[in-house]
Amino acid sequence: MFGEGPADARLMLVGEQPGDQEDIAGRPFVGPAGHILDRALADAGIDRATIYVTNAVKHFKFEPRGKRRIHRKPDGGEIAACRFWLEQERALVRPAVTVLLGASAAQAVLGRTVTISRVRGSAIALHAGVAFVTVHPSYLLRLPDQASREREYAHFVRDLRQAAATVG
Ligand code: URA
């Protein structure tokens, strides 16, 4: 499943892989993670219609459990196998700023594993443009208490705002 957005978008978001709802809809970030991402984009003053949203891995990896399909994290081999497609998208769009949502996206675009807390907040130079690494929106959904959800959500919005400000 490919990303979506204008071919001349200046800002690109890269997620991990489509989830259950994305796989059915054929569109990135339309399920629960997409809802919180949409809210954060709005709070950061970013119009989703102006940005390109895609994923590092192009297929939904899951484990069947009854009628449900439970997400499974892609491994390094799957990320590497899909890198060609992501690179085609990146070469066509050539965004000024790329936001890497979580470790899989960071691994796909930077070509190395990173500790999110160490690299968060700093612009990383890419072949073309710069990248910022932040958490994956699903992380926000997994936090156990309201206080940490609010704190982490605010940090995520700040990261998006910083990326948008870097675009100019
Ligand atoms: N999580 C992702 O990383 N990408 C999607 O498109 C949906 C959920």
CATH class type: Alpha Beta
Instruction: Count every beta strand, where a strand is a DSSP E run of 2 or more residues.
Output: 7
N- and C-termini, Cα separation? 30 Å
The CATH architecture category equals 3-Layer(aba) Sandwich
Which segments are poorly predicted (pLDDT under 50) over 5 or more consecutive residues?
none
Rg from Cα: 15 Å
- Coarse structural class: alpha/beta
- What share of residues is helical? 40-55%
- Counted by DSSP, the helix tally is 7
Main sheet: strands, sense, barrel:
5 strands, mixed
In short:
The chain is an alpha/beta fold and 168 residues long. It is 45% helix and 17% strand. It has one domain: Uracil-DNA Glycosylase, subunit E (3-Layer(aba) Sandwich), CATH 3.40.470.
Folded structure, characterized:
The protein has a single domain (11-167), classed as Uracil-DNA Glycosylase, subunit E (3-Layer(aba) Sandwich). The radius of gyration is 15 Å and the shape is globular. It has helices at residues 20-25, 32-43, 76-93, 103-110, 116-119, 137-142, 146-167, and strands spanning 11-15, 52-55, 62-65, 68-71, 97-101, 124-125, 130-134. The two termini are 30 Å apart. It contains seven helices and seven strands, in the order E-H-H-E-E-E-H-E-H-H-E-E-H-H. A hairpin with a 2-residue loop joins strand 3 and strand 4. Helix 3 (76-93) packs across helix 4 (103-110). The chain has a five-stranded mixed beta sheet with strand order 2-1-5-7-6. With 168 residues, it is an alpha/beta fold. The structure holds uracil. Uracil binds next to helix 2.
